[in-house]
Amino acid sequence: DAKTTQPTSMDCAEGRAANLPCNHSTISGNEYVYWYRQIHSQGPQYIIHGLKNNETNEMASLIITEDRKSSTLILPHATLRDTAVYYCIVRVAGASYDKVIFGPGTSLSVIP
Amino acid sequence: GAVVSQHPSRVICKSGTSVKIECRSLDFQATTMFWYRQFPKQSLMLMATSNEGSKATYEQGVEKDKFLINHASLTLSTLTVTSAHPEDSSFYICSAFGLNEQFFGPGTRLTVL
Asked: Using CB atoms, which residue from B4, B46, B100 is nearest to A101?
């Protein structure tokens, strides 16, 4: 079973920041928070991951609470192409044995 | 970045026939590959874990005799859907573990008539 909970769906106005929350209250000390997204009829795309520090790359920022029980993915300026299902996953990094188990994710709709 | 390909991207077959889907890691060696299935409006469901040179490990409820997995090399895993039926119509996605990370393929759309 997935170890995270996310809202089923969210809307965001084009050009505004999209903030996608994720709860992972049972995360273990060696587990990272990963975010992927899936645009319709495509394979999942890696976005970002982190352990406890906030992370930023060219796609998004990841804010992890100090107790690591929740996190927020931020798309700073959402575009129509960011409309997708976003999956928050916790797993051990660099471990082939730790399977990526997908929950339902959050369906983000970016509205013109 | 690392690339994983799948072939074919879409396939239509008649009921009762077998279909083979290939998953390749193009620029890295993958010790482990995973196969997922996704029905419309649902999330990805892990079907099996494929390790090079050994038997695949199937998730609970997945029929190993129906979904044959072969991982003959460090860059290729194949999924064969045997005696396909319309209920096997789905989006099949593979992923490959390498370079300390997991990379996903673009998916294969299978339609069984």
From this structure: B46
Which among B4, B44, B100 is the nearest to A102, CB-wise?
A: B44
| Residue A94 region by backbone torsions, left for phi larger than 0, else alpha for psi between -120 and 50, else beta | left
Contact A49, A35 (CB under 8 A): yes
- Taking the C-alpha atoms of residue B98 and residue B70, their distance in angstroms, rounded to an integer, is 18
**Residue B5 binned pLDDT confidence (cut-offs 50, 70, 90):** very high
* Terminal C-alpha separation, chain A: 35
> What are φ and ψ of residue A44, in 5° steps?
-60, 145
CB within 8 Å: B104 and A44: yes
Contact B57, B47 (CB under 8 A): no
CA–CA separation, A74 and A97 (whole Å): 29
Say if residues B8 and B108 touch (Cβ distance below 8 Å): yes
Q: Is the peptide bond prior to A76 cis by the omega test (within 30 degrees of 0)?
A: no
Tens of pLDDT, residues B22-67: 999 999 998 889 999 999 999 999 999 998 888 899 999 999 999 9
